[in-house]
Amino acid sequence: MTAPLDRIRFPVLSGDIGGTNARFALTANETAKTERIPTIATTDFATIDDAIEAAIGDRPPGERPKTAILALAGPITGDRVKITNNDWAAEPKKMIARFGMTDVILLNDFEALSLSLPGLGPGDVDAIGGGEARPEGARVVVGPGTGLGTGALIHAGGRWVPIPGEGGHVDLGPVSPRDFEIWPNLEQTFGRMSVETLVCGSGMLRLYRGICATNGVEATLANEADVAARGLAGDDPQAVETLDLFATYLGRYAGDLALIFSAWGGVYLAGGISTRIAPALKSGAFREAFLAKEPHRHLMERMATAIIIKEDAALAGIGDFARAPSRFGVELNGRWWQA
């Protein structure tokens, strides 16, 4: 077992490393304002260590980070952690040796996002439908992006305990008559249909192509950004249906998680796709799919759903943890490396 972490050594380098982008911030001490470092494209550097070197720059020794807390897309296992959806791998022992750090802590990316949830204010979220979040209720965060991230946060023993996982890879099946029409024309991933197969950036394009094939029309849109734009504009019927079903499938999944965790603290949607297609998510399809959990619809109606609009929420969650680690019950066994 790893000893409890009561205080973290500053300066702290926070990192939110996804499949496409790496976001970094540096905090000098517990009371200092966090310095946001410009976003780095993961394709611009061969390794995560090279990206960290660029993020730190030529700072003098006293300003260089003593601790790195990095949130990675994917499960945290072993001394070499492969990052999902890009070619990087994090090796904390090598980071400590290269950068002279004392500590490296690795978290799942949506675990870091879940750490931000207690600190979100009314101006940090955009509500979808009704429901009310209880202050100490369990919370869930879901985010379609390069993949589909999922995390939960439970309040127990006076602390917030994050629950990381790879829930986006659970199975997704057809429910409505329209689903059964479309399903034979959908491209699978890894020989199966997971939620992430359809509810992510590339999944939106798969869904659009499946709808076009079902309708017997040519799929003229080449990427998910065009599908989202045309769907929001309302000038392409297939793109419009794509956004409607994307919201529906995301709502079903979010509702399943809300039932599993009894998410009285709310279910929160994160990431660029959620904010970009917010009008589609607020049009009714997402919330109705979330609620349609008979015989427990009456329970679902009392649960809040919202889109996180706070910028860099995962970095904020890491910052909250760094400043007051004892407030959180973060599991550090096998995830905390020391010099």
From TrEMBL:
Its main location: cytoplasm. Keywords: ATP-binding, Cytoplasm, Glycolysis, Kinase, Nucleotide-binding, Transferase. Its EC number is 2.7.1.2. SUPFAM superfamilies: Actin-like ATPase domain. Pfam families: Glucokinase. It comes from Bauldia litoralis. GO terms for molecular function: ATP binding; D-glucose binding; glucokinase activity. It is found in: Cytoplasm. Belongs to the bacterial glucokinase family. CDD domains: ASKHA_NBD_GLK. GO terms for cellular component: cytosol. ATP binds at G15, D16, I17, G18, G19, T20. It catalyses: D-glucose + ATP = D-glucose 6-phosphate + ADP + H(+). This is Glucokinase. InterPro entries: ATPase_NBD, Bacterial_glucokinase, Glucokinase. The gene is glk. Gene3D superfamilies: 3.30.420.40, 3.40.367.20. GO terms for biological process: glycolytic process.
